[in-house]
Every structure is written in C-alpha cells, then in structure tokens.
Design brief:
alpha+beta, 6-stranded antiparallel β-sheet, 8 helices, 15% helix, flat
Length: 495
C-alpha cells in the first residue's frame, strides 16, 4: 500500500514538473523575438518575424526580412515594403513592392488593406493605371504601355485592365512626369494598425511578453511563473480566505457608510437619444453627463428622429449602436436626402477611435464630369446636380466608368449596397438608398481597461478635465492605470 502511494506521489510530481517545464516555453520563446532587419530595429508585438512562433505575434502581422535587408509584409494579397514603423503612434509607412523598381504595377491588382487591422493614416488620392487601351489624344502613355489617370477609373470596355493605387496628393503634379511619379510611388503611404494595445502595454509593464491566444482569438500575456498565460503577470491569484470570525452584516453599519459615488450612480443609467434606446459607454449626451462617456462620442439631436455624431468636424446620422460588437452604423448627414451636397469632401474618420468594418466598400461620387475620347457607351450610373442656374452631371460606382471629372467624393457603403450599385440595373434610387443606409464602424475606446473596470464592479467614464479614462466605483473613481475597483489607491475625483 505504501509503495503504491509513493508511486502515485512520484507520478504526480513528474506531471507537475513536466507541465511546469512546458508551459513557460511560451514566455521564453517570445522573450527574445524583437525583429531587426536593415534600418528597422527592435520591432515587437503585435509584429513578429517569420522565424518566430506564430503565437508571438498577431495574425496577419508577420514581417519578412529579405536577403537585401529589406522588410516586407503581405496584406490582402499584396506584398508591401515596410519603410518605417513607429510603435508609439502605431503608424507604419509602406509601399507596394512591385512599384519599388518600376513605375507600372507588375501585379495587376488594386491596392487594398485588411481593414480589420489597418486604416490609412495620412491623406491620399487614388490614381488608376489603365492597360490595353487605344491611344487617347492628349494623354501620354507610360513606357510599359499604360495610361495613368487621377481618381478611380474602370476599364469600361475600352481598356483591358485597370489597377488603382493610392498615392500622396503630391503625385498629381507628377502625372505628366513619369520619373517624378515613380519617386512619389516609392515614398509610400502611412497606415495605422487599429489594434487596442493597452492590454499589451500593461502586460509588458507587469514583466510579461505579449502573444496571441488562438483559442480565445485575442492578445494574451505570457508570464514566467504560473499562471503562465494571463491578462497581466501581476494579476492576483484567486485563493481561499483563511478561516476567521464570521463577518458582521454590513446593514448594521449602514448609517455610517458614505453615499455611493455620484459619478458611479449617474454612469449606471443608460440613456435614450432620438430613436435609439439603452445607450451606454462610450456614448454620452442628452441627460447623460460627459464624464460617463468618452470625449469623442457625444450624441446630439436627441429630440429629433435620429441622433447625430460628429467625427472630424463632419456630422453623421447614427442609425444603429451594437454594444456587444462595439459597432455603430452611421450615414453622412449631408448626403442623407441628396447626392449633390453644398460642399464636396471625402469621408474621413478619427482612426484613434473608429475603424471601418471589413464589409465596407468605398463608393466614388464624381462631379463635373466629361467623357474621354472614344467613350460611347450608355451612361447608366449618371446623376445630375443643379447649382444655381448651372446643371452638371456626375457618376457613381465602386469601379467608375472611364470619365474625366473635376472633383470626387469617397463615401463608404455596405457590401450589400456596393454589390447592388455594381449591377448594370443600378438606379439613382439605389444610390440614394445606399447613402441613406450608411456604413459600419467599430469603435475603440479604452476597451481593455473598461472591460476590467466592469468586471471589478465599476462603471466606465472619463475625467471631464483631462479626458483620460476613469473607472467609477461605488465609493470613489480610479485612474486609467488602475482600471478596477479592487485597487487600494483612489485618485482625484473627476469634475
């Protein structure tokens, strides 16, 4: 009996030592995985070098060091050369690899991004390379046999292939100058990765290394000691309290307790704005105080039929708010009931707060248009604009016909309406419905710390003076760094 017990005991210790030697490998395997290649040095999570384990980086952010010390990344079927990475601002400068040695794209694919991971971080314009076209009088052909035109153009039955490439606005001045255009193309564009890195920063501060949990599909923290995979390496372990005297019911001391924190009470109330109910953090407005939301999520027009939200000085109608997925559907207020707004401008977002959902597609509205020579096909996607005594016409579409226009406006629309507008039977009614149906955005508003605040019993908000995140607890507010109601160190109350 004793020998069997000792055998089981030895087997138990073997299991413990085996598991403890395997589990920390995540920590050790990701501890020295900073990526260095040529001019790029010390690049860490969410990126990983191709030679490191997959769980040491976020999916889709693998860096490849080429033999000539050039770093490349593969995004949405296109290979890009990485010119710089700034992990503080989460901005990366990239250029199409097939345009680094040639002015004409070798890969006949439109330039696209994975909008689940990236968004453009700088102003840009689109230019289109057209292949297999007849000679257009007055237009110069590139040595590769391609025409290059500003805006988004489709082949429209005249050319064989079109390739759209976003470039810096300075490229417009170089379109007749092929050598200058090549220089602008090689300067690349800035994109921002839209991952919430707050949790990773907390992990690093606690002594851990960030990685990816493929089971939970989220960023995790690899730690040197158990629990080897957690939110941070300083998370308290759940242990059973030692025996002690029975607690005295709190109701006996009720008259001695302070009243609940004012912000805690106020931020526990959801609010209604126009036709949308049960709105909470990060939104605020109407009878919900600013300190109960995020500064960039103010709703107004609550007494009318639809709430309004301002993003980058542009007004949007808020059609839906989905708290579980953190998505909001909005439509441009200036295009709600017209295709001819008074002021023409592209749709721009605050990329620190919003990222487009992956099903959005960019709709192009082109104004002040004329036909190029050789264009004879019916103009099915045409609309008219009347400004004063002047009538002009424009075009709409995801891939716009071969026309020459003075101005263009880019508006995201849903995948459903993008497909409808691409059909030959698309009408002006479809266009207006597509604009009125809006497009989806996913918001990023201190999500990691807000989750931790709510799990601990707190309510999310912000300091009205500084705009920083605040976790309101029943007795006091806490700071961004604390982000929970178990911490013993309160911070100054928000205004």
């Amino acid at each position: 009996m004793n020998s069997q017990f000792l055998l089981l005991l030895n087997f138990f210790f073997l299991l413990q030592s085996s598991s403890s030697s395997i589990a920390p490998n995540f920590y050790h395997n990701c501890s020295n995985t900073t990526f260095t290649c040529g001019s790029l040095t010390g690049i860490s999570y969410p990126f990983r070098g191709h030679m490191y384990p997959e769980y040491c980086g976020y999916p889709g952010l693998q860096l490849n060091c080429q033999p000539n010390n050039i770093t490349t990344i593969h995004i949405a079927s296109t290979t890009y050369r990485i010119l710089s990475i700034d992990q503080t601002s989460q901005i990366m400068k990239i250029a199409r690899e097939d345009l680094m040695e040639s002015t004409c794209p070798r890969d006949l694919l439109n330039t696209t991004l994975d909008y689940n991971l990236f968004q453009y971080a700088s102003n840009y314009i689109n230019i289109t390379f057209l292949y297999g076209c007849p000679v257009f009088p007055g237009f110069n052909m590139l040595p590769c046999g391609s025409f290059v035109l500003p805006g988004v153009k489709g082949p429209a039955g005249i050319c064989n292939v079109s390739v759209v490439v976003p470039v810096l606005p300075t490229a417009l001045g170089h379109l007749p100058n092929f050598e200058g255009l090549g220089r602008v193309l090689r300067q690349g564009l800035e994109v921002r990765w839209t991952l919430d890195m707050n949790g990773c920063r907390e992990c690093t501060r606690s002594g851990g290394f960030c990685g990816y949990d493929f089971g939970a599909k989220r960023t995790t923290c690899f730690c040197p000691t158990p629990p080897n995979q957690f939110t941070t390496c300083s998370e308290p372990m759940t242990t059973q309290a030692p025996p002690g005297p029975l607690p005295i019911p709190a109701s006996i001391f009720h008259t001695c307790l302070c009243a609940d924190n004012e912000q805690y009470v106020a931020c526990g109330q959801l609010f209604q704005c126009a036709n949308i109910n049960d709105i909470g953090y990060p939104f605020w407005g109407e009878n919900r105080p600013e300190y109960c939301g995020h500064p960039g999520f103010s709703l107004y027009n609550c007494q009318a039929d639809t709430p309004l939200l301002t993003i980058n000085n542009q007004s949007y109608r808020v059609l839906r708010i989905e708290n579980i997925t953190r998505t909001v559907t909005i439509a441009r207020a200036d295009l709600w009931d017209t295709t001819c707004p008074d002021v023409l401008y592209n749709t721009t977002l605050d990329l620190n707060l919003f990222s487009p959902v992956s099903t959005n597609q960019n709709l192009n509205l082109l104004y002040g248009c004329t036909l190029f020579p050789g264009q004879t096909q019916p103009l099915l996607n045409q609309f008219e604009c009347i400004l004063g005594q002047t009538t002009s016409f424009g075009f709409y579409g995801i891939g716009v016909s071969l026309v020459n226009c003075n101005q263009s406006v880019i508006v995201p629309v849903s995948q459903r309406w993008a497909e409808a507008l691409a059909r030959p039977t698309a009408s002006l009614i479809d266009l207006r419905q597509a604009l009125a149906s809006g497009f989806g955005l996913q918001w990023v508003a201190n999500d990691t710390v807000c989750n931790r605040c709510e799990v601990s019993g707190g309510r999310c908000g912000s300091n009205s003076s500084s705009g920083m995140f605040a976790c309101y607890c029943a007795d006091r507010p806490y700071s961004f760094e604390v982000s929970g109601c178990e911490s013993p160190e309160p911070v100054q109350r928000a205004d």
